[in-house]
C-alpha cells in the first residue's frame, strides 16, 4: 500500500519557491522600470527569521521528546498539550512553505542586482539579499525538520483498518 505524504512536501516547497521567484523578479523589474529605486533590505530582517528557526525547532524538539516517551529531558511545565503539538506542526509547515517563498523573493532581489554588482552600493544590496535568502532557506529547513519531529510513530492497527476498509469494495453497508 502506498503511503500518502504527510504534511508539506518538498515538491510543494519547490513550487512555492519557483512561483515566488518569478513573481518577485517580474515585480522588481516593473517596479524599477517605473523609475523607482529597488527596495532596501534591512539587516534587521535576520532577527525574526532566526527567532522563527529557534522557536520552531525548540517546540518541535519538545513534541518529539514527548512522543518518544523521553520527555524526562524536558521539564514538566514545557510538555506539550495536543493543541500545542498541533500548533507546532502548523508553524513548522508554515515555515517550510513561507521559507521557500522568502528564498524566492530574496533570490530574485539578488538576481536583479547581479548586473551591476561592481557598484559598491549595489554589491551591498546583493549581499543583503543573498544573506536573507540563506536565512530564509534555514527557515524552510527548520520547517521540514519540525514537521518530521512532529510525526507520530507508525500504528500497525491503523494500517490494518485501512486495508479492511479498502477490501469491502467501497460499499458502506455489507
Provide a quick synopsis of the model:
The chain is mainly α.
Structure description:
The protein is mainly alpha-helical. It has a domain at 42-153. It contains 5 helices and no strands. The protein is 70% helix and 0% strand.
Task: Give the helices and strands, then pairings.
Blueprint: H1 10-33, H2 46-68, H3 82-113, H4 120-149, H5 156-167
Helix pairs in contact: 1-3, 2-3, 2-4, 3-4
- End-to-end distance, in Å? 23 Å
Question: What percentage of the residues does DSSP assign to strands (E)?
Answer: under 5%
Radius of gyration based on Cα positions: 22 Å
The computed structural class is mainly alpha
Shape: elongated
For the secondary structure, the number of strands is: 0
Summarize the biggest pleated sheet.
none
Pick out the low-confidence regions.
Answer: 170-174
Query: What level of helicity do the residues show?
Result: 55-70%
Q: What is the residue-averaged pLDDT? A: 84
Order of helices and strands: HHHHH
Supply the number of helical segments: 5
Characteristics of this structure?
single chain; 174 residues; mainly alpha; 5 helices
